[in-house]
């Protein structure tokens, strides 16, 4: 794809949960090369293997064990072209802005810039073309930038739902409304995250800020980019056909994999049948796969026929968690169609999305 | 209430999960006295303590340990006036019919007669007045009965949802539609029920027959009784204002307590506000409590103010599981109002409902 | 017992996990009356119901909801005679010492003073007579005290093992060695305690400091008090018959109740048979029960006959968790006898022990 | 190894838990080729994909989906040289005997023949040389056999303990006694196995027959083969230096991976230090690895330095579960040394052992 070109990358928040996933995935990447690691001042100066409380099933990749961790300052990442950010929201804003200012391409899993009018919010299986917004982002930046930009990916629970929703809109025209109820894994809360005392033998029917993210991010992702009266490009938030999204978010005692029950109503009457929906979901191929992004899954959506699938424990590792699984496609007595979707919150719901976004940008020549 | 009168009762399916709950609850009852126990032929002839694989936290009540278990034949229950049935559906139909024929009052937790046009389906906190149907049930029976009848209570997941729905209809008029997503405890599947291999670190997004039960039973419970053209009483299935119910049922690794996310749309415009809904739910008092049924909860619905409640582990034992807990009452962007409801599936979702139904019937003089 | 006398008590660390248990238990106590609550400066000045993140199944007792929380300084507890300490070890030392200096009786669940040569370490079902050491504690204090003293109770995992060990020594003479392997509940780690990510679908075969506590505390508790050469009383650490204790501590995904596998070797040859051991354990009655301590369990040890008991979920609430359960008493091919013991780590393993110790002291006239 | 020779194999009990593991592993094997599948009569005649309730994370291997399942009769396996048996003990005895009689090499995970005086019980990382017993097994069979034989592997919980015990004996001479306390995963009980109601938030301190297996099998595996007075070869059951083993077995809410706390006493005085033990364990290489068995792990034992490892969730998949992990090697105050061992009960504890045993036999020319 890149004619053998290698790209040096850095990881910000390298000792955290998302950072560990970035490192696991990038260690085996065909063209991204881990070159620098950033973390908090108390980790800076240590070998990565000493700084991190490694919590992955696979051991620490050998090539990063001895890398010296730095503070998250651009001066330590000058030999990188790309940084992946797994930073917590309380520090991600300033740090990511400083890396963009230093002309680095930032692919962030944090929420801070998702609502920025010039920052694309990209679920790579859905809307990679939103990457085009980075030109305006650079141009309007003060000072204008040549190479630096920020691209965000979506919240983990948004990601799971929006993939089948996007496919349905492509196949059957706009959706009118959507009700989503999530059953989210504890790994979505990072580490230490949820105290075990709160979740063993329990459900917590609330995740702070999560429902708002699903309801807002879905519109930005499924919407288009249009020109406003002043000739600026703007995200239209699905405004040509208003889409109402209502989310209820729950935490369940599952380690990995968000399960979501989704009901949708189509604008078109009559709506598609369950069988038509199944075929559309199963048949979809993402642009990032077609274009050759190496981390893109062959099957964007796997549609289960068994009545009791997908299940997080059995299906979360399908295609290394890079696609999503859908099951139980059937009629809804209130809206039109309902189904279950499972997405791996730490793979396509987090680090994998950032990486595919960067692969796409590299292939497109933006890096 | 009954002027000191005691009523002998039997328990059918006494060694099963629901049967054990009946026995725990009835052992301390003010006017029901456990007099006979029925189970399968392989348990018959044994002392209860030998026949049962007791799985309750509280020990076997001392007064039942030595009772000899019989087969589920009416001849062994002639000194009882009431039987509670915790039988499995594969045998409940014939056995319950035979007890009714023997002029016993049968209060059943099984599904077999729930759809019978002359058998009331009663959630005691909601529609105890449906008990009136038993007169027609006796009259139309062949041969006509003097005392025998069958009353059923609802499926555990239906029960949790229908209590707040009923209160909302009483306060604000008919509902138009309702979407329910459940996260159900494993105890709802009986014993041995779910293999641990299927549910540890997992969600199973399917429970056979459960969604159909919620969607159908809700209509019978919330509907009224009307006269048909031939002068017969019939359950109207909420037909004066059609109500569409859509359910998605999931099993989660929780031992006890079904959590359900519910969204509703009211017929009336504008719909009530979240605060009005909260007040209506909190302020409701059930008829069975007012009339003095000893197992009825003082608070039909406890409305939580905290953002993260109700939770099954913390709230399932409130009022001995006889009421329901609601939380997170808020606007729904697609329908009108959404909330979370928690019901103890083995208490108000099963044995406790049967017992309150029988208490009501006794107080009403039908036993 | 106390002729109707009521005793005002305070709770230190009132908002923590152990503090919440103290409050739940004391709210219904026949002669202790909650009068003052102490917590960290950030809670001080607030109503208890506002300061606490209540995590108990039973609601906050109504009489403490409105109590104003104070900092843990003796000046706020002058109307109390007793304080119960659920403080964390990092602050318990100084605070408890200051309360003793202010002539208060301190019953502490913290580890700080357990190894103090003048502070008794009392498992109330085992060695309440060690309370006698408080006279020397007062006398040697600088300045000497009239009423103030500190009594500690044991670590939760020590408590479970030491109860049957003490009974065996009383019945069959000294033990020679003991191997203990624990499977401990997550509630033993306080709140937030163990991250769920670390314990779901997992065992953690290590608990910091826990094995040392079991190996050391057991000797102090099972040992006697003797006079040394200078006429001082000293804990003999079981030195007349050296006892070797080896512990292996594990954390398992259980909410409440520590299960421990114990093998023992007796000094006496031949050792007692399993049946003799069972009878000794079942037949034991504690002094604190005999003397009328209201929180003491009627049965110190319940001996299960079923092969698969005790189990934490089924047995941890027996006698409100104030006794211990033993099962599987059988021969050990390496030592003499092995068995399983279950103790409720948050009841007899923590707050309940402190309270019984205080009841005993009150009945003995030391308060 | 085999010069490109391929060996047709069959799997008995192919639809069960162990059978599914055999199929997953054999589908990618370098020289074993799945040729026939056997299961109960109700599965016979169906395509494997239809007959099986597949419960593995990896999908059904494509090459077995369409294989027609047969009853477990030798006539259907005539083109196989080897059969692997994942049969339940209630049927394994007769079936395995019939396959041996038909001159097939049977590698069985079932317990039925483990105690047979002519059947080797082989943990491949420990005692593959016991394979030599099959010559006598064939010779003494009636009628004598040319190729048929049965080899068993050990119980899953025995396997975990016996690997480090064997290494310790090789390095430091015979052991005198050993106390083992297990915390076993639910997958060890097969499917459906343990009801979720019994194990969520719980420990079950009993597994039927398990302690006896550990105590007996360990002696057969660690012992040698000697000639008796009549010139027959016999397993000496470690009788030259009697070894006493005491086991306590517990089930915990873990899906996969048995964790065991082990204390040992050596015959030699003084015993080795913890550091010597660590080095011996870490340095050991198994014969099956040296000889090139493709499923043998490079590291027989991985010794963790971190205080809190091994843990089942993090370590069970190390080397595809084919080795074992040891941690916390330290002195025992009662015996000499104690440590924690983790073994993957469904890999080295079951199917992987059978397969390595067969690889060894093939390389040795016995197949």
Automatic annotation (TrEMBL), chains A, B, C, D:
Enzyme active site: 156, 258
SUPFAM superfamilies cross-referenced by the UniProt entry: Glyceraldehyde-3-phosphate dehydrogenase-like, C-terminal domain, NAD(P)-binding Rossmann-fold domains
Known pathway: Amino-acid biosynthesis; L-methionine biosynthesis via de novo pathway; L-homoserine from L-aspartate: step 2/3; Amino-acid biosynthesis; L-threonine biosynthesis; L-threonine from L-aspartate: step 2/5
SMART domains per record: Semialdhyde_dh
Alphabetical GO biological process terms: lysine biosynthetic process via diaminopimelate; methionine biosynthetic process; threonine biosynthetic process
UniProt xrefs under InterPro entries: ASADH-related, Asp-semialdehyde_DH_CS, Asp_semi-ald_DH_pep-lack, NAD(P)-bd_dom_sf, Semialdehyde_DH_NAD-bd, Semialdhyde_DH_dimer_dom
Keyword Manganese belongs to the record: no
Protein keywords: Amino-acid biosynthesis, Methionine biosynthesis, NADP, Oxidoreductase, Threonine biosynthesis
Root EC class: oxidoreductase
Domain of life: Eukaryota
Domain Semialdehyde dehydrogenase NAD-binding: 8-134
A single MF term (Gene Ontology): NADP binding
EC id: 1.2.1.11
Entry keyword Oxidoreductase: yes
Reaction equation(s) it catalyzes: L-aspartate 4-semialdehyde + phosphate + NADP(+) = 4-phospho-L-aspartate + NADPH + H(+)
Family: Belongs to the aspartate-semialdehyde dehydrogenase family.
NCBIfam families assigned to the protein according to its UniProt record, in alphabetical order: asd_EA, PRK08664.1
Function description: Catalyzes the NADPH-dependent formation of L-aspartate 4-semialdehyde (L-ASA) by the reductive dephosphorylation of 4-phospho-L-aspartate. Mediates the second step in the biosynthesis of amino acids that derive from aspartate (the aspartate family of amino acids), including methioinine and threonine, the latter of which is a precursor to isoleucine.
Protein name: Aspartate-semialdehyde dehydrogenase
The species this protein was found in: Obba rivulosa
Lineage per the UniProt record: Eukaryota, Fungi, Dikarya, Basidiomycota, Agaricomycotina
């Amino acid at each position: 794809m890149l004619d053998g070109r290698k790209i040096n990358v850095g990881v910000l928040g390298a000792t955290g949960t998302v950072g560990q996933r970035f490192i696991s995935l990038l260690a085996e990447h065909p063209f991204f090369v881990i070159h620098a690691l950033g973390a908090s001042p108390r980790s800076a100066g240590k070998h990565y293997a000493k700084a991190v409380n490694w919590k992955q099933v696979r051991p620490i990749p050998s090539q990063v064990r001895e890398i010296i961790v730095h503070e998250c300052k651009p001066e330590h990442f000058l030999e990188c072209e790309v940084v992946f950010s797994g930073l917590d929201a309380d520090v991600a804003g300033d740090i990511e802005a400083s890396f963009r200012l230093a002309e680095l391409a930032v692919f962030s899993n944090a929420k801070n810039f998702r609502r920025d009018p010039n920052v694309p919010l990209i679920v790579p299986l859905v809307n990679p073309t939103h990457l085009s917004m980075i030109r305006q982002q650079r141009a309007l930046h003060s000072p204008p930038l040549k190479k630096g930009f920020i691209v965000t990916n979506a919240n983990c629970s948004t990601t799971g739902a929006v993939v089948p929703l996007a496919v349905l809109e492509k196949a059957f025209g706009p959706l009118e409304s959507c009700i989503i109820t999530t059953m989210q894994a504890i790994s979505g809360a990072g580490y230490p995250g949820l105290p075990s005392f709160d979740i063993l033998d329990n459900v917590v029917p609330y995740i702070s800020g999560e429902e708002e993210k699903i309801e807002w991010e879905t519109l930005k992702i499924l919407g288009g980019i249009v020109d406003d009266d002043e000739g600026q490009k703007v995200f239209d938030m699905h405004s040509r056909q208003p889409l109402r999204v209502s989310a209820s978010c729950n935490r369940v005692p599952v380690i990995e994999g968000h399960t979501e029950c989704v009901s949708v109503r189509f604008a078109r009457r009559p709506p598609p049948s369950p069988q038509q929906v199944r075929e559309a979901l199963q048949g979809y191929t993402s642009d990032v796969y077609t274009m050759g992004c190496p981390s893109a899954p062959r099957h964007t959506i796997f549609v289960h026929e068994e009545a009791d699938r997908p299940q997080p424990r059995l299906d979360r590792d399908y295609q290394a968690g890079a696609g999503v699984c859908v099951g139980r496609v059937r009629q809804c007595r209130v809206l039109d169609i309902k189904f279950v979707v499972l997405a791996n919150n730490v793979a396509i719901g987090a680090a994998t999305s950032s990486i595919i976004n960067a692969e796409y940008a590299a292939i497109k020549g933006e890096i």
